[in-house]
Amino acid sequence: MRQVWITRAGPPEVLQVREQPDPEPADGQVRIRVKAAGINFADLMARVGLYPDAPKIPCVVGYEVSGVVDRVGTGVSGLHEGDRVFGMPRFGGYTDCLAIAEDQVFRMPERMTFEEAAALPVVYLTAYNMMLFTGTLRPGSTVLIHSAAGGVGLAAIQIAKTRGCILIGTASPGKHDYLRQQGVAHPIDSRGDYAAAVRQIVGDKGVDLILDPVGGKSWTSGYDLLAPCGRLVAFGLSAASSGTKRSLLHAGLQVMKIKKINPMKLMEDNKTVSGTNMGHLFGRLDLLRPQFAELLKMYEAGEIAPHVDRTFRFDEAPAAHHFLHDRKAIGKVLLVP
């Protein structure tokens, strides 16, 4: 099999294709011939050495794949050779052959492409968990989505539209027309004072739900924007990234900018701060599988549709990571064997 390895912490050029023997499925596992693998921002953070949950480098990362089952281990009853499937590994998705537990695999809808399938699991589960599982997205809510043109951002937009929400989204100006086409009434420049821009839109009413993967000072500004009974959900700390290489000083400064809030303050303000880390939920498939099943129903109903910006071959993995670092992507970026 061919895999994309992080050979050492550093810029995208540290990614390297290596060959390894094909894995054999153990008891309760299936083997998937991978057709596409999703790239997430956590992969970039792992590559620069700022993602503490990642395996020790050198390693293979990747949370989501699509492909075809080509071998079934003993004890597997619900999947068969030839099934078109999603696979959701904890890590190891940058590969063309994957052995994975049966309960981490779902059959793909018949009309779904392999590219759509690799683009769905992590970002849509993250958005669903933040909006419809741990929180209640009320119809007509005002929702502020940071990095709105990214994978989670577009997933959140589609889910929010099913509740008739008023959408505000931050992104670079070149992506604003696309966001308007997707239903974002108020695109704002992510590079300026977003809080002032949002306040001009909502006035004293505030924002009901904020989804923020930026962190640092952004969380503090977002908290102040919340309406009574509003909710801020943190799902990343992209502010800690200083580019294609690690800077511990920069990361530390961003962490220091995070405002400390105690429960008494939350009670007095009638506000909620919560967090979602999908990587830490992979051990709770009892929670994730029902959410994923609901997402597939939404896909079949035409309410959600993953958007793939570009695909890159395995040997183009450095270019794929550069593409994401440069904030060029709209939606998902994939690796294809």
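[next item in queue]
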Amino acid sequence: MGSINVIEEYQDYYHLEEGGSSTTGLVFSIWQIGQMAGALFTWVLDWRGRKMTLVFSALMVVLSAVFTAMAPTLPSFIGARFLISFFSTIQCLAAPVLLVEIAPPLHRATVAGVYNTLYYMGSIIATFAMYGANLHLGGNIKWRLPLWLQILCP
């Protein structure tokens, strides 16, 4: 979001001030608010099981990412960011637990380590996608493409 926030087309589309405002702060902080709310639902993992929770939350992340990329207004964009952070938090809670449970005992530490490493690899890929879109694309697709790319990993 830090890279998208400085793109002129994004600021123009949502009528944001160039220097930032409280609305800009809400766009960023809503992610943490969604994570805090999502963390309260760890009980769902035991209630519905890891696999079912992962399938449902992955579907909701994809739908939320579509809504984020297509959001016509700033309030809808903020709401979609809340939803995507809420459901991705549930995924981030369920996935490592399931991986460690189903991995053979000899490979559990390696599987858990690879899972945690892939998060940072995804961050690097997202950064380069944003950089490439900013360099080679024009118009609103410049900032919307990285939002669409959120669909790939879930």
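[queue empty]
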